[in-house]
Amino acid sequence: MKVREPRRSPAASWLAVLGALLLLAFAALLAQHAAAARGWTSASSWLGEALAALDDREPSTWVLAGGVAAVLLGLWFLVAAFLPARRSHLHAEGPGDLWVTPAAVEAVAADAAERAPGVLHAATEMRRRRLRVKALLAPGSEAAVADILESVGTRLGSLAEIEVSVQAKEGAR
């Protein structure tokens, strides 16, 4: 049985909310137009006034700019609708179905790097499947990047296929 991967919300989900709000505003505009046309209100129709303002033989610059912006926005919405949602977790190797968040991988890697000999402090940053470890070494310590890589690699062994890079800097005396 294939288990579905945990994923983030699709890129188009907030666009759906925006589209719903625009449709709601359009419905309010049509309701005001209907109320003005039926004589239920003394105000003139907003829709009628907007269409009268657009009644021009030559398109003005702002109408052209608005049209170009609408086309570009529509293309962006179309691309966002077809983009798949990004993975939110990493699959851990092994017989079970275990998924790990990138924040958990960062925490485990930082702890492993800080336990390496000569390391005073370690910070980690994960982007996609790349983990960057920044280590602050004790002054005059013999700690090497290889020790930190070995410590982090041992700890993350079966969690996920991750590319690890280490930046080590010796602290001031």
From TrEMBL:
Keywords: Membrane, Transmembrane, Transmembrane helix. InterPro entries: DUF6286. It holds the Pfam family DUF6286. It comes from the Bacteria. Residues 72-159 form the DUF6286 domain. The chain crosses the membrane at residues 60-83. This is DUF6286 domain-containing protein.
